[in-house]
Amino acid sequence: AVPDEPGRPLVMAFTSRSVNLSWTPPLSNHNSYILHYLIHIRIGEEGIWDDNLVFETESNSTSTQMKNLQPFSTYSFRVTAVNALGRSRPSKESYYMITLREVPSGKPTITAAHNISSTSIVLSWSPPSLTSVHGEFIGYRITYKPRNAHGVAGRLLWEDNTPPTEILLKDPAITRYVIQKLQIFTQYLVSLQIYNPEGLGPSTTVVVMTDEGVPTMPINVTFGEIKNSSVQVHWHEPYAPNGIIQGYRLYYMHQNFTDVRTVRNPSPQMQYLLEGLEPYTNYKLWLKAFTWKNEGMPSESFEMLTDVQGPDFPIITNLTCKDETSIFIQWEHPLQYFKAIDFYYVWYRSEGRWEYEEEIIDMDFEKNKNGGSILIKNLTTNTMYELKVRAVTQSLYNASILYKGLFSEPSKILITRNCDVVRASNILTGERLEDSSSGSPALNLELSAGVIAGGACVSFALILAILAFGLWRKYFNESYYYLDESPSTPAPSLVPDWDIESNTTDASIGSVMIGVSSIGSSSSASSGTTRRTAIPAHMFIQHVDNLHALNDAGFSSEYEMIQAMTSISDYPADSSYLADNKTKNRYHNVVAYDHSRVQLRPLPGQKKGEYVNANYIDGFQKARAYIGTQGPLPSTFDSFWRMIWEQRVRVVVMITNLVEKGRRKCDLYWPTEGCKVYGLIEVAPVREEVMCTYTLRTFKIKHTKIKSGKQRLSERIVLQYHYTTWPDHGTPENPLPVLSFVKKSSAANRDGDGPIVVHCSAGVGRTGAYILIDAMMKQMKAKCELNIVAFLRHIRTQRNYLVQTMEQYVFVHDALAEAVASGETNINISYLSRYISSLQSSFTTDENSVPWQLSDRQFKLATSYRPGESQFTASALKPCNQIKNQNFDYLPIESGRVFLTGKSGIEGSDYVNASWLPGYHNLREFIVTQHPIEQTAPDFWQMLWDHRVQNVVILSSLQQPEFGVFWPTKQVHMDLESNIRVKLTTEDSTETGYQTKSFQLISLHEDSDTSLSLKFIYCPSWPHACSPISSVTDLIRSSSLLKKGGSLNSSSYPWVIVDRFGGTEAASFCAISTLLKQLEAENHVDVYQIAKVYHNRRPGIWRSQSDYLFLYKVIEAVVNSDKHYSTGMSLRVPPEGMESLVCKEGYASPPLKRH
């Protein structure tokens, strides 16, 4: 039989990982030898006897040692005897025992470690498994010390001899701790351990960096060369930058008015040329360095006096001859001079000579307060002399520098034997004549008859010029009066010959005309010469800069030349003046030339077709590429649509609104719903797509008298591209949307389609600008040159007044310069990865040149706009508003800021630091603003109320005191001074981890029951650090689902996007939202256009090239990961684990640091 059960095992000794057991043998082995024993182990008081936890002894000894146990664990044991016949019953279990403690073997897992201010770090962790504590879990030990770097032999080493600071947390339940009172912008080694009564476990160590603070003051500020309008300022960086110096602000004050310049690209030793100063003026200057946090301490202030400037022109008061060989000239000091006048230069020459002779007069300014005079001798009798005077002032800082003033008006005098003689008593015998303070009548101004006659001629010519200008303004201005006319036979269509000069090979080709003088000297149409006016594309930008010089003098000269060469009187328009046709002209002075007028086919019973005010206009290397016409009148709707049908028109371009500034500019010539018949043509709307700057309408037109058959169709599709944001009698503020509109509308006209019909109101100004831009872009693509002058002269012979104003002419040049500079930026998604790769590739022009990247040039071009000072001083920098700005790098420009309902008598009450940004569907789709502070929170809520905002996205983290909570709690509502009550109604968290809050805004006015419901979507620190770059769009897509009233981009009310300063994160959110919509609708994206338009609306939002490239990389990640955007081709998908992360180069913006 099997043996009886052994005795209860007893614990004789134990350690942390072993136990010595002893037991008595069975009372009877039933005559079978005991072979060995089995030791059963149970862990814990409530544990089970696991068959897998059985230890077999090596012999039949009644004692053994159990090893490999866990420290500080409860165990019990029982024994089974084994003989040849089998196992006995288990013994009674031993008494519970606990192994001894050990130091912990487990270590906590740090789940988050980042800064929350410039002097504090937050650490979050999860505890280790309790089985690895090996004793009573007392708590945690945190140690930290600065991680100081130093270089040795070219290598970067880390000092490790600094004693760490220790923090003991005697609560195992703690999983988060904030370390405070740290050094600013310093890396710390932070270690975390658990401990029990036996000691400390292994540590988990991370490197964390405190946030940036504000720097100390710049040092060693000195002045270099001081000039009359500038000063060179030198300084060194602060002793304690306390962060990454983003730049410096140079403040300068004059007469209690303070201005500021921001200096970027910091280095240890800085210099800056402060320009735009007033001459001979005292300025007080000081400097502040700034990090992304804020400005630091100001440097010591310094005072300096700018140098003098050349004086204004003197006034000649007396010019007479003393005798037949000498002239006496007297003058008054200039009306404006600086400090004093040290010299006068008198220049004179005889008639017929080119060079002037010069007399220099050393001036004692204190003795000659009124002016100066001189007697010039040894002249030739019976000769006409021309004289002029200029004043000179010596530099305050360099005696060798003379600032020469303006010359006086030249004066002429004829020396004869019988000329007037100046009394000798009033003339000193030397060359220099002192000014007489007695005001002797003998020194009165006596100008020759030639001078008087010349002045009279000049005055008469000036009067004629003023009268001519007035008549021109009256005749050419859009004082539009209604008129009418009848058709004539159109001239035969010829291939355009305006660009024939582009192929000439005469000697003039060698010197391309650039600038004012060269263009102004180009030959007229009547001269028959072929002087080349085409500008190579690579020289066009410089050409436009030259035309802009001297207050657009080049444009003025060139445009006047074009107008003079294309007089309306040169081309008959008899049909337009016929009595029957006068009511068919929208404006009295805009007619249709007979030789190029579009003529409709006569209807049955008509001898000739109906009149329409429209002309064929040539394009680049294509005759009759366009039809320019007026905005249709109700009386011309039928003929307009019949023209569309007869000319096989597919694209109609409309560049006007129906009503502008209260005046009717065009009539509604299309049906808005349901089909409508216009004469013989039935028009039915198919769809309408509203974009940010234009609307695309699709119509189906049908000829009611034609039945469809094999040879002809009775139905056609017509596309109307309606540009809605071109101001009347003005130009758009940004050419990029216009360029995009021209490209898309022109590309929609297929080969074989009829002309593109272009109309504005009169069909001349904006119409001509569109045609000129489109034709020149085609020429640039085909020939790499632009011939604006020749082409505009040519098309003005086909329809009067095309490009009606000089402002439009300038805009066309600026738009084409933008097209040349930026190239094609609207990229098809199938080429997007290749395009981004080319942007980031390095190029060199030769072996010695510095490598450059296209992305760098594109970023600089996108951020090249510098708003004028008035854009900020009008509101943002007013003293009453400066306290409302969190960061002076992010200010709204006046033309793009969001206005509040102002309070009567309170200056600045209409200001909030917020800017309008366009989206895909709306010109005012987004409001970008800073995180409200205590002073601006009421303005923020007022803004939401005024603009009926229903959705707010908050991207800023809550960090007291700068970025605190600005909304009420559920228990306490908020009442504003503007009689608005704000109530928090609900709070929730989404599956994607974003928080939502719903608010009710209620008017407290007795006579109003108006309210507004809105929702906050709260996602702090977006885009999240070290997350896949494609996840950046998760918030945008979630916002579309969470918002009130539809998709993100189709709301009729603006979205408000909040980050800390209304800067990069908010702009990135808006840009990516817009680009995703464009991607979905067009399979194209234009990152450059969005980035540049946004920069122009809120300068400074793109701080670095990485911010710009981040937009590209997000869209690329979306394209590569989302099957929705597949176009049937194989899109590149990154390997698993290789997707770009936000924390890498793709997005390295300082405000989103995570260390």
UniProtKB/TrEMBL annotation:
Catalysis performed (reactions): O-phospho-L-tyrosyl-[protein] + H2O = L-tyrosyl-[protein] + phosphate
Sample GO molecular function, one term: protein tyrosine phosphatase activity
Residues annotated as domain Tyrosine specific protein phosphatases: 736-810
Keyword annotations: Hydrolase, Membrane, Protein phosphatase, Signal
Membrane-topology descriptor: Single-pass membrane protein
Superkingdom of this protein's organism: Eukaryota
CDD domains, sorted: FN3, R5-PTPc-1
Cell compartment(s), UniProt: Membrane
PANTHER family on file: RECEPTOR-TYPE TYROSINE-PROTEIN PHOSPHATASE (PTHR19134), TYROSINE-PROTEIN PHOSPHATASE 99A (PTHR19134:SF540)
Protein name from the UniProt record: Uncharacterized protein
Lineage, uppermost ranks: Eukaryota, Metazoa, Ecdysozoa, Arthropoda, Crustacea
